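hi! just following up on the protien thing from before. the input was this:
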Amino acid sequence: LLQGSERQKVPSSRRRRQTPKGTPITVTLALSPPEPHPSEEEQLTIRLTDLDAHYSRVFEQCSVTEQVLAKIHAFAAEFGLEVSDTQKEMGTVQLSGTASQMKNAFHVQLYDYEHKDGYYRGRTGGIYLPSSLVEHVTGVFGLDNRPLVKPHSRKRTANSVPHNGFTAPEVAQLYRFPQNLDGSEQTIAILEFNTPQPNGYLG
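and the predicted 3d structure came back as:
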């Protein structure tokens, strides 16, 4: 059992059906770094003396080892999954396959749910991995695609006063936004995440 992977269904949601076997799914495996991170004092000392050396060491310590990658490739091949992306320095590997393959690989039951804000694919219970792999994995994300953010945009007229908020010029002033920019070809997103689970697991 992958520690912290237990999930419950969204409150007030209703299970509609089992997720169709052929549904394409891509999951991301978050991997633990092969070496512990240096202390803050050590990081500061390296950063002040040689910034390039600092980043090189961080990447080296966080990079996934070839031995771990070999285990993941063997695991993927066993269940017919494709290793679709590998970010060694970020410590992530993506696996792609069908809902049926994911079910067999991670020993989960996937269902389509309906709730007041729409639909999502979800699971309950935990995720299981081989003993040779579970010690290297800290999370599996993507099996469950329940909504984690909720839009709070509101329409307003030019003369209306925002309720418990700020106008765009007020926000610009608070953040000292440059006066000579008009936002052309720029996109800004503000995300408000739900309250985390007690174990902090979101995948």
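The longest strand covers residues 24-31.
The first helix runs from residue 40 to 49.
cheers
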